[in-house]
Amino acid sequence: MDGLMILRLSFLLVVLYLGGNLGESCNCSPMHPQQQFCDADFVIRGRVVAKKDSFLPLNNQLDSGDSYIDYNVTVERIFKGHQNIKIQTNIAITTAKENGRCGVNDLNVRDTYLFAGKGKRMFEIKNCDWVIGYKKLSRKQRQGVRHMYKQYCNSCKISPCYDEESCNQDDSNTCMWDLSSMMYGDLDCESIYSRCLRTAEGTCKWLRSKEVRSCFEGRKHARLSRLINP
């Protein structure tokens, strides 16, 4: 596969994986949940109790400016940002109203979510942040946000890859995140079941639990099947 073809395939995979819309100005690069956790200023489990529109005037002119959504969220558990947030209090989490400005406008009142966002006094979320219904988290992801992800935030890097050559790069400080078959509907084994950790030998590797090995094996068989029956 030549370089141009790999570049085109990589771009297509990013768009398909993220459900991107080329007509919108908000574009996000793939980011593993562990990296989302590490890059966030706060990570909480919270229940949305109210949702209202707000408006930020431009230069104090009420006829121009940007519209936002303020989510009133009851903090049920804090995984990161304890110094700025208190448990069982209500906080306002703000987002842009429009999708094109990376707004998260589809959260439901009374539902509970994992919020991984930015801010230490004013809290903000965007489409590129990790915001997901808490019940949708896998068992390994819940373990990650509770205890495991934080252990390797300053130790290992997670890098997306889109073809066999780049996914087989050997870097002791990086876990390669294989997105090469997401366009075919294969499972994202690394996000759902694994985390990147530094081993006793000093290299960064994906956790190889029974669930991860089984997922990798299933993904391998799916790829072989596509080669045999294209």
Q: How is this structure best summarized?
A:
This protein has 230 residues and is an alpha+beta fold. The longest helix is centred in the C-terminal third of the chain and has 19 residues. The radius of gyration is 20 Å and the shape is globular.
Please, what is the average pLDDT? Answer: 85
Q: State the end-to-end CA separation.
A: 17 Å
Broad structural category: alpha+beta
Number of DSSP E strands: 10
Query: What Rg, in angstroms, do the CA atoms define?
Result: 20 Å
Shape: globular
- Element order: H for helix, E for strand: HHEEEEEEHEHEHEEH
Main sheet makeup = 6 strands, mixed
Please mark out the parts with pLDDT under 50 across 5 or more consecutive residues, or reply none: 1-23, 57-64
Q: Helix amount, in percent?
A: 25-40%
The strands making up the biggest β-sheet line up spatially as 5-3-2-1-4-6
> Please, how many helices?
6
Question: What would you note in describing this structure?
Answer:
It contains six helices and ten strands; from the N terminus they run ααββββββαβαβαββα. It has 230 residues and is an alpha+beta fold. The strands form three sheets. Strands 5-3-2-1-4-6 form a six-stranded mixed beta sheet. A two-stranded parallel ribbon has the order 7-8. Strands 9-10 form a two-stranded antiparallel ribbon. β1 and β2 form a beta hairpin. The radius of gyration is 20 Å and the shape is globular. The N terminus is likely disordered.
